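PT: before anyone asks, these are the final sequences, not the draft ones from last week. 798 residues across everything. Please model them as a single complex and drop the result in this thread when it's through.
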Amino acid sequence: MSLAAVDTKRKLPDLDRVPRVDEVGVNERVARFQSRSIKKESKMAALRMVLSMIDLTTLEGQDTPGKVRQLCQKAMHLHDSVPGLPHVAAVCVYPTMVGVARKALEGRGIHIASVATAFPSGQAPLSVKLEDTRMAVEQGADEIDMVISRGAFLAGDYGFVFDEIAAIKEACGDAHLKVILETGELGTLDRVRRASVLAMHAGADFIKTSTGKIQPAATMQVTLVMLQAIRDYFYDTGRMVGMKPAGGISSAKLAIHYLVMLRETLGNAWLTPEWFRFGASSLANDVLMQIVKQQTGVYQSADYFSKD
Amino acid sequence: MATPENKLAFEGGWEYSPAPESTDHIKVAKKYELFIGGDFVKPQSGKYFDTINPATEERLSRVALANGADVDKAVKAARKAYNGAWSRMKPADRGKYIYRIARIIQERAREFAAIESLDGGKPIREARDVDVPLAAAHFFYYAGWADKLEYAFPGRRVRSMGVAGQIIPWNFPLLMAAWKLAPALACGNTVVLKPAETTPLTALKLAEVIADAGLPEGVVNIVTGAGDTGAAIVSHPGVDKIAFTGSTDVGRIIQKALAGSNKKYTLELGGKAANIIFADAAIDQAVEGIVNGIFFNQGHVCCAGSRLLVQEAVAEQVIQKLKDRMETLIVGDPLDKNTDIGAINSKAQLEKIESYLDIGKQEGGEIHQSSCPVPARGYWCRPTIFTGVSQSNRVVQEEIFGPVLAIQTFRTFDEALAKANNTPYGLSGGVWTDKGAKIFKMTQSVRAGVVWANTFNKFDPTSPFGGYKESGVGREGGLHGLDAYLVLEA
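LR: through. Structure below.
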């Protein structure tokens, strides 16, 4: 597909009009979210919500079909000794593993997300990225996690980044597109905000912080800036865009702080797996441990929770 | 801009369960006496008054009412202590006592925070994170000055004033006691302090701390009562200096009473601060600044950012975001750790605020309040904004001292500045812009004691605080705060 075929309704907005971000103020706001005290029923509800929003992830060079099948088993059976737990939202794998995941998860209501577009660096020609995307979709991925070209973005070539996202969106067809900004490489919150606006206008269904391969990955600060960008975009267009912080969220407590931030920034409509995801590999077990603690009053050893 | 279809929804859904701070660890006596000459003594008036919890309207305790004779006794005790140990003590030893007060406040921080919240209605989060730590910080800061006063004013000889009469308000009871006591003691004065009649408990708890810290008897005397008690302190001939924080009306009465006397005074009075938001500001952080500026401590803040001036190009956007942010503010039980806005301090104050809501509406202002539920009992006011008002509206001109914000728009820098200064007050101000040069230009031109840039309501013991015009006389805090409690000689 050529760029000329891209939906012409999408237009690169004037990024100079994007509100500035004051880092000190962002830190203060985040501290306020962290000072919310979430106890009892509200904590239990939050823990269950967190589980249902997880994109259970394995993205390693050493991934094999065996590893991915085990991960899928975990996705379906988080901790069967506690009945009635939700399953995770999706598993997230490389394109080559999508077929394996699809077979393992057939009919279970768990989405299959695949990274694409020369993840994690994004350093490949558009044709390769498009092929990568199409292949993942053909194999059965219903969610595509693409990376933006950070080099081009930092060089100020916003048009290139915009067109690339728009082209990938077309290639996704019905699959949802999550656009990874790799905020750890963008350097400032102002650039995070601009990249968020650019991605949404280019057609992103979700915006996502990180690949997990670069430090820092997701932080509450960048996530707040992205949520505020989502809110402004919603004010302007009425279109909801989802949010996915990924990487570095491994404790239930931190995940609950994210939900507080989500609730107080975007409101209730976003508090579902349809609009919010955690990209995480080890978060689920800490959440499960907390759920068992809430029910029994004692912490169990980590060995009582399956690791896949 | 938003249409009804793209409106955010904050009500219902996932709610936070109640998370009340425990009150098991605090002790509030059924009755409190006056703290005079190092002892808790019965009032000669024989009378006591109730202090109530404004969130429940229930009585917390009964507190002694000091009359003229009680004040006289307190002033005499302070004079005796001044002439005795305190003014002759080695300055470093004076410092040691003040450090001790600071440390005991830190050790008893949870207790102070809970009582402050119970007696005054402020959210436990603020009492815990702002009032109590800042009170301790003030004692720590001024303790350090006690033996360095001669370095504070190079080339001048300094000596203490004598007996200071201090009258403090109900909005930050413990913190204001700290603002008053710490510099007075560090400079070698003795004190008669009167807390506000609606919030006397933490000052009386502080009396316990002062006794525990072993200060010589009579150095600090705490007398409780209302306006008459304050008037007795102001007019007492044995007092060398009056420090008052409260309303401009009472400040005027005090200034009149002091005219012709030899008493020094500092007055910390009302305010109607302009919080100025330029189109190039970090808008989302500025909205937080508006919230902190006007809804902090239910708006019972003399330096509250109660007038919002927002540049026309972003006004609609700012107001929309502010309205959504207001929906997320939790109003209710002050002891709940998630409460953002607690109870209005007293019935009288609530009536005053409500009268201004009526005035604002009658004058044609457009009122908007958040939709949050409020408890059936107690004194509550939802966060409120007025739009469509101008410099000619009373809600823009007069201090409401509640969670009520008056919003005006402006077009140019000069217009914003003119509006900011077009007030009888001059206590504080705020400016929000991404442009450094504009910050400097505005902060140098706004006639107010404190002007915050890209933040609001930030306090530090090292920073002076005080007003222009009807906002007061003198400075508290920092080096300037020492000046108010010393006689400087050539």
